[in-house]
Amino acid sequence: MSGRQESQRDQDRTRAHRPRTISTAWLERGQTTQDFVVGIGVFLLAIAFVFSFFPALVTPYDSSVGGAETAQADRIADRIVNDTSTGTPNELNETEFDKRYRSGDLTEELGLRSSNDNAIDQVNVTVTELNETVAIDDDWTAGDAYDDQAAASSARIVTTNDGSDCEPACRLVVRVW
Known about the structure:
Protein name: Pilin/flagellin
Order of helices and strands: HHHHEHHEEEEEE
Mean pLDDT: 80
Organism: Natrinema limicola JCM 13563
Radius of gyration: 40 Å
Shape: rod-shaped
Pfam families: DUF7287 (PF23958)
Strand content: 15-25%
Largest sheet: 5 strands, mixed
InterPro entries: DUF7287 (IPR056613)
Strand order of the largest sheet: 1-6-7-4-5
Helix content: 40-55%
Distance between the termini: 103 Å
Keywords: Membrane, Transmembrane, Transmembrane helix
Low-confidence stretches: none
Structural class: alpha+beta
């Protein structure tokens, strides 16, 4: 062994050792396993609460109209255009429209559901100008009165056989609720 290593060893033996210190930081913090479990539990409950109400935040206005009503409105609009057509695509015959839909029973004419002669499905058919929401005149409305309630609607761009009411075209709107 070299002299240097021996002197180092001698110094280590003669040096006074200081007493070992014990860390007491965990005793002063006051956090126990129960505190940790409570904290994690509160955190998980908060996350579950956020995720359970997240769909309500994304879709704040839930519609009471389902896919069946939308399909029914689309079917009725197609049937009206087909039944009152003049032979030209999407051109409605006013006389035929009046005869079939204004004078008749829409429940029977359109195949709507009813029970004991009471209509279950309510329907409103209106022909409006393209940029308007009210009917051209009373000759182009049929069915139940529509008062801005939740309803499934379907629209078709049409013309009329006389051409004076719709320049350049009109909108056939069918609402079902």
